Amino acid sequence: MGLAVSVDLGWPWWVTTIIAAAVAVAAVVAFFVTRHPLARGVLATLAVQGVVLAAVAPALMDDGGAGSTAAMEPSAELTSADYARQADANCARFSKFAATLGNPSTLPGTASMFYRMMPAFWNAWMEQGLLRPPLEERPVAGRWMNAMRSYGSSLEAVRYAAARGDKQGVNDANRLANRQAQEAARLSSRLGMKVCFR
């Protein structure tokens, strides 16, 4: 599944980036203000989606506001083996970087680690979206991309919980992330990958 989206909103990409960034900031502020668990979950997801949209808007849109599909999707369809190989290479690069961040044992250290790691995670996720699997694998690849996005959202929830000193919130988000990682690992295996989520 390519991360190919045609967006035509009638304004330049930078307007979308500003709007998305503003939504993300507002969601983060509201996240720290509210105490309702469900509301926090929704706000955390909204903040993540705002950050991702702000990051990808320059590639998805041109200066006139029209969609730029070619910028986000390779011209050639990959074979099953090449798709798995390139996806594994992306995962290996991210894993190598993540390994340099250590394994902090305190909440402030955990928050700091995730603040450094998550931009690299979303960049790796977007790189995976650029890969174009063979037609027969696209349904599974789409589910894999969605599973990774859900996993990333849970990691963001860990980051926010750690930043506010909420140990229970960290544990809850970690449990959800672990379940999502298992689903991503299952789909990685179906796609023939040997590195991603292993």
Describe it for me?
There is one protein chain. By secondary structure, this protein is mainly α. It folds into two domains: 1-73; 75-198, Up-down Bundle (de novo design (two linked rop proteins)), CATH 1.20.1440. It contains six helices and no strands. It has helices spanning 13-33, 37-60, 80-99, 107-130, 138-163, 167-190. The longest helix is centred in the C-terminal third of the chain and has 26 residues, at 138-163.
Number of domains: 2
- Stretches where pLDDT is under 50 for at least 5 consecutive residues are 1-9, 60-71
Largest sheet geometry: none
As an assembly, this protein is single chain
Strand content: under 5%
Helix/sheet category: mainly alpha
Q: What form results from the Cα inertia axes?
A: globular
For the residues shown, what is the average pLDDT?
81
Known CATH architecture of the largest domain: Up-down Bundle
Topology, element by element:
Layout: H1 13-33, H2 37-60, H3 80-99, H4 107-130, H5 138-163, H6 167-190
Keywords:
198 residues; mainly alpha; de novo design (two linked rop proteins); globular
Compact summary:
The chain has helices spanning 13-33, 37-60, 80-99, 107-130, 138-163, 167-190. It has 198 residues and is mainly alpha-helical. The chain folds into 2 domains: 1-73; 75-198, de novo design (two linked rop proteins) (Up-down Bundle).
